[in-house]
Design a protein that fits this description.
Oligomer: single chain
CATH architecture: Alpha/alpha barrel
Order of helices and strands: EHEEHHHHHHHHHHHHEEEEEE
Helix content: 25-40%
Largest sheet: 7 strands, mixed
Strand content: 5-15%
CATH topology: Glycosyltransferase
Number of strands: 9
Number of helices: 13
CATH class: Mainly Alpha
Structural class: alpha+beta
Length: 463
């Protein structure tokens, strides 16, 4: 099989008619789980591109791309995109099986190979790639509410964290080995290493903390108090070492990049309070320096808009999402993309290729923004595992006049719709049986919310 968008036929003696050709999309049997649409056609095309790319790559293993000599189960791509993948399709069985492959191919020293199944002879141990062993099991438990995945993967989770412990230096830093870093992040032509390039070991310390936190979470769910205490002590030392090595007295990070601030804030690396507030401001300032463009790569991009929203920069999150010039999510859409590109500028504005090598036009990793769209535009958020408790809280912005999303949770279908007309907002929400929800209804300006705690049923609001 071979992924493609166009076909060329040479040497056929008769007349070629398009209706005589059938293209077959081959992918694992995953039931559709969610829908998203809104008043912006470019965002609707982006959502289409995300789901189409997921179909093209979820074929027994989550491949990086379907059209070139790789078609491999790259672990970094999979963990970056997993949360979005769950909104689009039911991937529980797909990833339950693949995680068993992850554990089976895990090296004796605890490192995870770069690709699963491992066809690269054990090459592995890269931060953000090996962390697939902790990130996906925990997120699967959150989404589907099945503790079995944590039971099955716990030893694998421990082994990866154990690998990082084993390679921690005297200063408490996981600064060891070769890493991909913030893969394919934006790098300006005149970059001297001080702008949009994030130190790989700085990134590694953040993911060391994140994987340890997820292991703590799993230990609590599985009632392992001794492990919980051990890893909580470890987490404190990881963060202390990070702050000593990578954070200045005024709260700036050694790598003054969007990804550095995003990871530090997403993974709670910084002390609570003013230090985090300052870091969020530094992030916003950095985005402004790039004329409201992102510079993040595979590891920073999934969390970028989430961090902005968490720290009160919703307007900036929308600005990035709706940015139409390179580098941005909508630049490929404006260039005619029908799936997500591997590079922010796979095709340049003049129509030339960024590079004729390693330049996939069906590579789902940057489609991780879909998670933010479901959670913050449609407003469908998880408050307890398996959506037993739901939060509906749409963010109004981006000049959108309506949005709607649905998600087939383990308890049933969740629907969230909102519309603004004549300076009034109407909102329609459906909550499935045996669940409860906190519904936050904004005014038409999106500034003021009213909270309603409800049980199953259809709920209608206007403001």
């Amino acid at each position: 099989f071979y992924g493609f968008r166009y076909i060329k036929v040479d040497g056929y003696p008769g007349e070629l008619l398009p209706e005589n050709f059938t293209a077959v999309a081959l992918y694992s049997d995953m039931a559709p789980a969610g829908t998203f649409s809104c008043s912006n056609p470019l965002l609707n095309q982006l959502q289409h591109n995300i789901t189409w790319g997921q179909r093209g790559n979820f074929l027994d293993v989550p491949t990086d791309c379907p059209q070139r000599d790789e078609r491999l189960g790259w672990t970094g791509d999979a963990q970056a995109f997993f949360r979005t993948a769950t909104y689009n399709f039911n991937v529980k069985n797909f990833f339950t099986k693949w995680l068993k492959d992850v554990a089976a191919d895990q090296r004796a020293d605890g490192a995870i190979p770069h690709v699963i199944p491992d066809v690269l002879n054990g090459e592995g141990g890269a931060t953000g790639w090996s962390d697939v062993s902790t990130i996906i099991p925990w997120q699967m438990y959150e989404i589907y509410g099945d503790k079995q995945v944590l039971t099955d993967q716990y030893a694998s989770m421990q082994a990866w964290v154990g690998y990082m412990i084993k390679h921690t230096n005297a200063n408490g830093l996981f600064a060891y080995g070769d890493h991909f870093g913030d893969w394919l992040s934006y790098r300006p032509g005149n970059d001297s290493g001080t702008d949009a390039v994030t130190d790989k070991y700085e990134i590694a310390q953040c993911f060391f903390a994140h994987s340890t936190q997820l292991l703590i979470n799993a230990a609590k769910v599985l009632n392992k108090p001794d492990d919980t205490a051990k890893y909580e002590a470890l987490l404190k030392s990881i963060k202390a070492a990070y702050n000593k090595e990578y954070v200045t007295g005024s709260g700036r990070l050694m790598s003054n990049t969007q990804t550095a601030y995003v990871l530090a804030l997403q993974f709670d690396m910084l002390p609570e309070g003013e230090t985090r507030t300052k870091a969020a401001q530094y992030l916003a300032d950095n985005i402004g320096k790039y004329n409201n463009h992102l510079t993040t790569g595979f590891l920073g991009t999934p969390y970028l808009c989430h961090v902005l929203s968490r720290f009160g920069y919703n307007d900036l999150a929308y600005t990035l999402l709706l940015q139409e010039t390179f580098p941005s999510w909508l630049y490929p859409v404006k260039m005619g993309a029908t799936t997500i590109w591997e590079r922010w500028d796979g095709i340049k504005p003049d129509g030339s290729f960024q590079t004729p090598e390693m330049n996939s036009f069906n590579h789902y990793a940057y489609g991780a923004i879909g998670d933010w769209m479901y959670q913050n535009i449609a407003g469908i958020q998880l408050a307890e595992p398996a959506f037993k408790k739901i939060v509906i809280k749409p963010i109004i912005g981006g000049k959108l006049t309506w949005a709607e999303g649905s998600y087939n949770s383990p308890y049933g279908k969740i629907i969230s719709k909102w519309k603004i007309a004549d300076n009034k907002l109407t909102m329609d929400v459906t909550i499935p049986k045996n669940t409860t929800a906190d519904i936050y209804v904004p005014d038409a300006a999106g500034k003021d919310y009213k909270k309603y705690t409800v049980s199953a049923g259809e709920h209608h609001y206007s403001r």
